[in-house]
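Supplementary Note 3. Input sequence used for the single-chain structure prediction.
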Amino acid sequence: MGGSMKEENEKVQTAQNAYALFLGCYIPTRVPSMEKSARMILNRLGAELIDIENASCCPDPIVVKGIDYRAWLALAARNLCLAEEMGLDILTLCSGCFETLKTANAILRDSPKIKEEVNDLLARIGKEFKGRVRVKSLLDVLREEKDAGLRKMVERPLTGLKVAVHYGCHLLRPSTILNTDDPFNPTLLDEIVEGVVGAESLRYRRKMWCCGAGARLGDPELSLEVAREKLNHISSAGAQCIALLCPFCQMQFDMGQLMIKRKFREDYGIPVLSIPQLIGLAMRVDPDQLGLNLHKVSATPLLEATGLEA
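The predicted structure, written as discrete structure tokens, is reproduced below.
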């Protein structure tokens, strides 16, 4: 009897810590360091990550949604169906994918008429949306582990490191659906930086501004100006690095610094780290294993300042 109960408990524990991992398009092709570091952190937390096979683009919550709302919903529903067939909640690493999948999930669950219309489309490929899974962001999982598993894994707090946290747009809004944090005064990333990593999370002007990446297709000049102004405030605050969760924002600030240097002759030299990379440094993980060597803006000054050279 005792053995059977133990086996049952182990099954429940496995089910609670297993996720259908949705990588989206941008992370595998442009920011593999985010995937690599996130997998490392989540594995150490005991999470089981099972890749969703044959997943498509989420699709993105700006372009596709604006061009064809019905197609946006149907494509998102197909990805949700794949997770339903696995019997697992979806875990997203990308903030844009999180917004799309969680928003679509809520719309389809709350509107029987829209759900029926989308299922009519899905029936052509043998799929049916049932609304049986939840969509979680990486921040959701880190929040759940913040006061337990994450703190215990930190071997060397990054005391004295000055960090500029960037929340971005898609992690927080629409707030009534995503329920991530206060959309106007969020604190969760700051709490991880200070309470887990042991660094200082800076207050700076325009902290809640968009990175400008969303304007890149329509107005590249404006996109670069928005990033430039935000980087100026981050630099003025004395930040030694930027910490964020969105891969699109990471590319905007990382590659964007090179573009700004080329066009305006302004060299900010501020490394851009994903939150799992920052946590990994506090866990004494080799910087190259976290993918810091793949960034456009060198992290060497940051590593030297904190005594974390590879």
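Residues 1-15 have pLDDT under 50 and may be disordered. The chain is about 55% helix and 10% strand.
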